[in-house]
Design a protein that fits this description.
Structural class: alpha/beta
Radius of gyration: 34 Å
Strand content: 25-35%
Helix content: 25-40%
Number of helices: 10
Number of strands: 20
Distance between the termini: 78 Å
Length: 423
C-alpha cells in the first residue's frame, strides 16, 4: 500500500525498543514515508508542515511525560487542519489500566498499541485508520468543491469567481502583467425559456458553457456569474488579444442550436463586454463595474457584439463655477457621478472610463452666485462639433469612443452658455 503523505513519529523510544521496531516494521510494510519529531512544538510544526496520514506518540511509565503527551494530543485535535489525522498512542508500559486507555481515547487518540498487540493487528489498525482518513478527506474535498461550483454547468459559481478574480488581480500586480475580464450574456435568453421550455434552456446553458470553456486558453477561468450571464478571467493578455478571443467565443457560440418540434431552429448569440487591468481598473469592484458597463453598451448597440471601456479625458473652462461634472448616458445622466477637478488656471479636468461606441454627454455646472433656479446648468461641449438635440431646447454632445485610442476633449469657454436648464 503506497501513500503520498508521511507518518509523523514522535521520538521517545530507544532504537532497539521491541515495540518501536514492530511499529516501524508495520509502517514500512505499508510503504509510508516517516518523519521523526520531538515531543514538543517540533511535533506540532512537523505535523502542520507535512499534513500526515497518521501520528504516533510514545507512552511510558512516567507521569510528567504522559501529561505532555495528553496535552500534545489536545493541541492536535484542536487544530483545524489536523483534527482528522488519526493519532496512535504506542505504550511500552507494563501496567496500563482501562481508565488510562479511556483517557487517551476521549482526548482524541485513534487507538492504543501495546506490547501485547499482535503484529498483524498493528498493521491492520494503521491501514484502516489511514483508509478512513483518506475517505473523509476525499468527501470533504468533493463537498467543498461542490459548494464552489454551479450545479447546472459545473463552472465556478459567483462566490468563487469573486475570490478567483481577487487572487488573479493580486498576482498580476505582483508580476506586473495584464489581465482581462469578460462579462458575457446570452442574448434574449428569456425568450428561449418562454418559447422552447426550461429543459431546452438548461441544455443550451450547459452546451454554451462547454463551448465557451473549449474556446478559452489553458489557465483562463470561466464562471457562471448568474442566470444566463458568464464571466471569464484572462490572465496575461493584451486588450487586442482579449478582443480577438472574445470574437472567437462569439463565433463558436453560433454553433449552439436551439430547437424543438413546435418551433423553428435558431442559433445562440452572445454579447460581451470587457475591461483590462491595470489600465482600466485595479480592484475587483471597478473591474466588474466597467466590464458590466461595456456589456450593457454591447446590448444597447444591437447585441451579438463585443464592447470594452476606454479612458477618456475631459476639460472645461469655467472660472466662476463651484462644481463641474460630466453627465451622460453611461452614468444615467446623474450629475454627481463623474465630477471634474478644479485646476489653478480655472479649468476643470477629469479622466473616466466610457464604454466603446456612441455616447452622449453634457457638462453640468454649479455656481453659488447664480439665482436659486439657475444654480445647476447643463451645457453641451462647445468645442465638440458633434451634437444632437436633447429634447429640452438645447443639445447633447456626441462622442464615438474607439477601442484603442484615448481621445481628449477640450471644451473651453469663459462662462457656461446654456439657454435652458435640464431637470
Amino acid at each position: 500500500m503506497g501513500a503520498t503523505k508521511p507518518i509523523v513519529l514522535a521520538r521517545g523510544f530507544l532504537p532497539d525498543d521491541e515495540l518501536w521496531i514492530r511499529v516501524r516494521q508495520a509502517i514500512d510494510d505499508l510503504e509510508f514515508p516517516v518523519v521523526l519529531a520531538d515531543q514538543s512544538e517540533e511535533l506540532i510544526n512537523a505535523a502542520s508542515n507535512t499534513g500526515p496520514d497518521a501520528i504516533f506518540l510514545p507512552w511510558h511509565d512516567d507521569t510528567p511525560h504522559n501529561d505532555k503527551i495528553i496535552e500534545a494530543l489536545r493541541v492536535l485535535k484542536r487544530d483545524e487542519h489536523l483534527h482528522r489525522v488519526p493519532v496512535f498512542i504506542v505504550a511500552d508500559s507494563e501496567v496500563l489500566d482501562d481508565d488510562t486507555v479511556a483517557r487517551m481515547i476521549t482526548t482524541g487518540a485513534e487507538d492504543c498499541i501495546r506490547k501485547k498487540t499482535a503484529q498483524i493487528l498493528i498493521k491492520s489498525r494503521i491501514c484502516n485508520a489511514v483508509k478512513t482518513k483518506f475517505y473523509y478527506d476525499f468527501v470533504l474535498k468533493v463537498s467543498r468543491e461542490a459548494a464552489l461550483r454551479d450545479p447546472l454547468t459545473g463552472l465556478w459559481n459567483h462566490r468563487q469567481f469573486q475570490e478567483l478574480l481577487r487572487l488573479e488581480l493580486a498576482r498580476s500586480k505582483r508580476s506586473a502583467t495584464s489581465v482581462a475580464l469578460l462579462m458575457m450574456d446570452l442574448d434574449r435568453f428569456k425568450s428561449v425559456n418562454d418559447t422552447y421550455g426550461h429543459v431546452e434552456g438548461d441544455r443550451v446553458l450547459k452546451e454554451a458553457a462547454l463551448t465557451m470553456q473549449s474556446s478559452l486558453r489553458a489557465g483562463d477561468i470561466l464562471a457562471r456569474y448568474g442566470g444566463e450571464e458568464f464571466a471569464a478571467i484572462l490572465p496575461g493578455i493584451s486588450r487586442e488579444n482579449a478582443l480577438e478571443l472574445s470574437g472567437r467565443i462569439q463565433k463558436a457560440l453560433h454553433r449552439v442550436r436551439i430547437s424543438s418540434d413546435d418551433h423553428p431552429e435558431r442559433y445562440v448569440t452572445l454579447s460581451i463586454g470587457f475591461a483590462c487591468s491595470p489600465e482600466d481598473a485595479a480592484d475587483v469592484a471597478h473591474f466588474i463595474q466597467f466590464s458590466d458597463m461595456a456589456l450593457l453598451q454591447a446590448k444597447r448597440a444591437g447585441r451579438d457584439r463585443v464592447e470594452s471601456v476606454r479612458p477618456i479625458s475631459f476639460r472645461y473652462l469655467a472660472e466662476e463655477a463651484d462644481y463641474v461634472s460630466v453627465a451622460g448616458d453611461w452614468n444615467a445622466w446623474r450629475p454627481e457621478a463623474n465630477p471634474l477637478v478644479r485646476n489653478a488656471n480655472g479649468s476643470w479636468t477629469g479622466r473616466m472610463l466610457l464604454p466603446t461606441g456612441r455616447v452622449t454627454y453634457k457638462f453640468v455646472v454649479k455656481q453659488a452666485s447664480a439665482p436659486p433656479t439657475r444654480k445647476m446648468i447643463w451645457t453641451h461641449d462647445p468645442d465638440n462639433p458633434r451634437k444632437e438635440p436633447d429634447g429640452f431646447g438645447s443639445y447633447n454632445s456626441v462622442l464615438n469612443v474607439t477601442r484603442y485610442q484615448d481621445e481628449i476633449l477640450y471644451g473651453e469657454v469663459e462662462k457656461p452658455t446654456v439657454r435652458a436648464a435640464r431637470t
